[in-house]
Amino acid sequence: MAERKPYPSDLSDEQWALLEPIITAWKARHRSVSGHQGRYVMREIINAILYQERTGCQWRYLPHDLPAHTAVEYYFYRRRDDGTDQTVHDLLRCQVRERAGRREDPSAVSMDTQTVHAAATVPADTTGLDPGKRSRGRKRGLATDVLRLVIAVAVTAANVHDNAIGTRLLDRVVLDNPSVRTAWVDAGFKNAVADHGAALGITVRVVHRDPATPGFTPLPKRWIAEKVNGTLMWHRRLVRDYERSVASSEWRVYWAMTANMTRRLTGTRTPTWRTPTASTGSAA
Questions:
Q1: Which residues constitute the domain of residue 189?
Q2: Parallel, antiparallel, or unpaired: how do β-strands 182-185 and 150-157 relate?
Q3: Ranges for the Insertion element IS402-like domain (predicted)?
Q4: C-alpha to C-alpha distance for 85 and 72, rounded to whole angstroms
Q5: Which of 3, 5, 156, 185 has its CA 20 to 30 A from that of 206?
Q6: C-beta separation of 254 from 237 below 8 A
Q7: What is the DSSP string of 190-231?
Q8: Distance of CA 279 to the CA centre of its chain
């Protein structure tokens, strides 16, 4: 089969080198029933997932020069369920933190929520109406460190109060990152979150907006999680929630951040529609 033309979302050789040891080791432990390694190259499976993350297309709309969508779905769900993809994500995060001169484990997080519309195919019992934003869909909660790296994700129906999401995020933060001692939040998180944090050994600090300052103003510490939410919007699969399961919605965030961290570690970037190409020429 002839080598295909690369897509902008494809892993570079340097990026694949970061993922290859874990992915190939996983594949070696999961041979087919007949004992062979399978017909699909693992790098191409990941390229297909990243293509979908970036473009937002449906499984069946994956290009024909990528692996069959049934195979891509299989590996996406299999590694989601056994935690392999989160392991990849967490190891990359440790590398990014070390390169920035910080310890592997964070000591503080910034937490925020974001409501996104849900597609018609999303089960109704996992969606709701956010009364504050008057928007129906799901609510995505993030806990991020000071380097804008994701520490924990919690996706719920949009009518779930920020308190419930905040306590769930804190539980997940402590489970994998017991070093965290401080969490910065906005006023949407009430005393219940602070009390829950105190029970876990985390001081929850509410960063209030100055009522005398008009318009949008980035607030210290709190803006970190808000900026991560903005960064995730580059991945069209996250602009609207298409996932039937909440677990898949959360894993889409981890995949977006995995792509982000491989770029940070290799000093590369994924071209956007604003990036000049040879056919359009350079920007004026």
A1: 105-245
A2: unpaired
A3: 11-89
A4: 14
A5: 156
A6: no
A7: -HHHHHHHHHHT-EEEE----TTS-S--PPTTTHHHHHHHHH
A8: 32
In this predicted model, what pLDDT tens digit does every residue of 242-265 receive, in sequence order? 999 999 999 999 999 999 999 999
Q: Is 210 within a domain? A: yes
How far is Cα 173 from Cα 179, in angstroms, rounded to an integer? Answer: 9
Are residues 167 and 195 in contact, defined by beta-carbon separation less than 8 angstroms?
Answer: no
Going by C-beta distance under 8 Å and a sequence separation of 6 or more, which residues neighbour residue 50? 9, 10, 11, 255, 259
Q: Determine what percent of the chain is predicted with pLDDT higher than 70.
A: 87
* Residue 140 is assigned to a structural domain of this protein: yes
Contact 141, 109 (CB under 8 A): no
Q: Any idea what the CATH number is for the domain that residue 221 is in?
A: 3.30.420.10
- Structure-model confidence comparison of residues 175 and 274, the more confident one: 175
| Nearest-10 Cα torsion for 79, 112, 125, 251 | -10
Please report where in the chains the tokens 């000049």 appear, as a residue: 276
Residue 192 belongs to a domain? yes
Diameter of the chain measured on Cα atoms = 69
Rounded CA separation 183/257 (Å):
20
Task: List Cβ<8 Å contacts ≥24 apart for 45-49.
Answer: 45/71, 45/72, 45/75, 46/11, 46/16, 46/19, 47/7, 47/9, 47/10, 47/11, 48/72, 49/75, 49/76, 49/255
More confident residue, 282 or 68: 68
The label of the residue with tokens 């996932």 reads 243
Q: pLDDT tens for residues 197-211? A: 999 999 999 887 666
Helix (H, G, I), strand (E, B) or coil at 49: helix
Q: Which structure tokens are listed for 53? A: 């993350």
Residues 6+ apart with CB under 8 A from 184: 108, 109, 110, 111, 205, 207, 221, 222, 224
Residue 143 lies in a domain: yes
